[in-house]
Amino acid sequence: MRIRTLTIVGVGLIGGSIGLAARRRGLAERVVGVGRQQATLDRALALEAITETCTDLTEGVRQADLVVFCTPVDLIADQIRVCAPACRPGTLITDAGSTKAALVQAVDGNLPKGISFVGSHPLAGSEKRGPEHAMAGLFEGRVTVVTPTAKSDPEAVARTRAFWEALGSRVVLLNPEAHDQALAMTSHLPHLLASALAGVLPDDLRPLTATGFRDTTRVAGGDPALWTAIFLQNRMPLLKTLETLRGQMDAFQHALTHADGPAIDALLAQGKRNRDALGN
Ligand code: NAP
């Protein structure tokens, strides 16, 4: 795959990593970074994640062959609708947002003729923010979920797939709703749990935390605004997984209340089995 002009809207951790990967792999001749603050764009330019900066969304997409949105999930659909009329026919639009159903539903079938959209979500990243934490190898060997619908143009789906594969990802196709249900369990619930646990730590116990507490709560260091948007966009699937977790918490509480050693052992063994199966 070879792209003449790649436009990245939102050059933070994910957008910056896409730019670095695309440049390192010789995927794009020009990488235009679009953002609201010149200072962030200048940092991304200095890090060589992009080759040009632009603070005007419609100007930034005008010459693009492919546009990737890497802004917070509650902004992406509106940004796509605003800029799509400025895109050239044949332009492919995708995104890296962590939730898919609401976004895809808002965009699907609502773009000007000749402009395609296919949703994506790379399952790679960290709790850090901004282009200074971007990594060229972030997507290597990692799954990217691409979320076509019945309305998607098959050629646009194939191009979206080829783009993520060219960045080193392994692509999995899921419909947007199946993506959101799966990610509620594998990403959004862990974030909620880490935040809840970190949130109840009394200040005076901070010096007594060690690797266990820090490993378990690492993702709670993520940006609250970014994650509020994710939780709200995926509210119903997240509530369902929270119910499942509550059931498991209740089982622990019941076993502890009754000093039921075998039940505690069985619950811990179930957790260990599932965690060991993940590997490192
Ligand atoms: P990030 O480092 O904070 O970058 C977010 C980008 O969006 C920045 O360029 C920021 O610009 C811009 N932005 C934030 N608020 C904005 C607003 N109100 N208007 C316009 N631009 C705004 O976050 P990130 O981790 O790269 O996340 C970007 C997207 O990738 C999100 O949709 C997220 O769900 C998704 N994602 C994240 C991860 C992860 O692990 N981090 C993994 C997969 C997917 P400024 O510099 O001006 O603030």
How do the helices and strands line up, and which of them pair or pack?
Layout: E1 3-9, H1 13-24, E2 28-34, H2 38-46, E3 52-54, H3 57-61, E4 66-69, H4 73-83, E5 92-95, H5 101-107, E6 116-117, E7 119-122, E8 143-147, H6 154-166, E9 170-173, H7 176-199, H8 211-217, H9 224-233, H10 235-257, H11 261-278
Parallel strand pairs: 1-2, 1-4, 2-3, 4-5, 5-6, 8-9
Antiparallel strand pairs: 7-8
Helix pairs in contact: 4-5, 7-10, 10-11
What helical percentage do the residues reach?
40-55%
Shape: elongated
Strand content: 5-15%
Uncertain regions: pLDDT < 50 for 5+ in a row?
A: none
Alpha-beta classification: alpha/beta
Give the H and E element order.
Answer: EHEHEHEHEHEEEHEHHHHH
Task: List each distinct ligand once.
Answer: NADP nicotinamide-adenine-dinucleotide phosphate
N-end to C-end Cα span = 32 Å
How would you characterize this protein structure?
It contains eleven helices and nine strands. The strands form two sheets. A six-stranded parallel β-sheet has the order 3-2-1-4-5-6, with helices on both faces. α4 packs parallel to α5 and α7 packs across α10. The longest helix is centred in the last third of the chain and has 24 residues. The two termini are 32 Å apart. The model has no long low-confidence stretch (mean pLDDT 97).
